[in-house]
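Module 6 notes. Inverse folding takes a fixed backbone as the condition and produces residue identities as the prediction. Think of it as a translation problem where the source language is geometry and the target language is the twenty amino acids. Below is one complete input and output pair. Work through it position by position during the lab.
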């Protein structure tokens, strides 16, 4: 579903990703783990062309993203980030309906979809008319998740989506993500610096260190022998 083929990225001459080869199969929930600055966000942002490779290719659904129109590509991929980035002057319903509106859906269809998504992320329907400033951090993250899912993308990119919320809200959000992933078969690429989160949620793991992919495989493969090396790598990778 997503393939990185010998991908390197440079920023102003400094190489931050070195020849990454990684395939994410359809339906996987792949956790990208590694220390701060190891290149996790950069790797994720290659998928929706917020970052361009200096070498190699990124394929999405078999197509080289370099040949795809960026706006169209982005509307086909859900993207949720730590800072959420809700539009402050738009209501919860308007925020969730952003991509469907851009795609030209009819008003009634958007309204029905918003209602469905609020239920999916377990938010009270009464929140639809609120503004982002009137939400708790956990509620805002749920709205961000609903917005990312709005047009039912088959790929979901999540960059430390629960990093800014309290532990109880985070536990709830993880549960929603696990349920949504299990129920829809979406391909999810999740950046996290929390090994517990990775081990709890991921079907597949990719470990980055210093811009290099140092381990990848299914969670089962990587947590089976040689357990110690991998788990040490993972646990040592927190920041
Ligand atoms: P992570 O998400 O693992 O913390 P990032 O992918 O954000 O790591 O960053 C990897 C490296 O690339 C870091 O050294 C960071 O400073 C650098 N970097 C990231 N984005 C940019 C950018 N837009 N311009 C210059 N350097 C960047
Ligand atoms: Mg990051």
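Target side of the pair, the amino acids:
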């Amino acid at each position: 579903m997503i393939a990185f083929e010998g991908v390197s990225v440079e920023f102003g001459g400094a190489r931050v990703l070195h020849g990454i080869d990684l395939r994410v199969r359809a339906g996987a929930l792949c956790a990208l783990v590694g220390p701060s600055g190891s290149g996790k966000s950069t790797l994720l942002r290659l998928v929706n062309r917020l970052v361009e490779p200096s070498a190699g290719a990124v394929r999405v659904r078999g197509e080289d993203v370099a040949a795809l129109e960026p706006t169209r590509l982005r509307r086909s991929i859900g993207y949720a980030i730590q800072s959420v980035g809700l539009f402050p002057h738009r209501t919860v319903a308007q925020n969730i309906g952003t991509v469907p509106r851009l795609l030209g859906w009819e008003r009634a269809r958007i309204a029905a979809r918003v209602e469905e998504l609020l239920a999916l992320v377990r938010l009270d329907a009464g929140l639809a008319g609120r503004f982002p400033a009137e939400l708790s951090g956990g509620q805002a993250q749920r709205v961000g998740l609903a917005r990312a899912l709005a047009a039912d993308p088959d790929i979901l990119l999540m960059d430390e989506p629960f990093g800014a919320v309290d532990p109880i809200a985070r536990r709830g959000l993880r549960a929603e993500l696990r349920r949504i992933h299990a129920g829809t078969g979406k391909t999810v690429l999740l950046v996290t610096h929390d090994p517990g989160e990775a081990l709890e949620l991921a079907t597949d793991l990719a470990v980055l260190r210093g811009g290099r992919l140092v381990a990848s495989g299914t969670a089962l493969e990587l947590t089976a022998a040689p357990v110690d090396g991998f788990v040490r790598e993972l646990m040592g990778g927190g920041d």
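Reference fact for the lab report: The mean pLDDT is 89.
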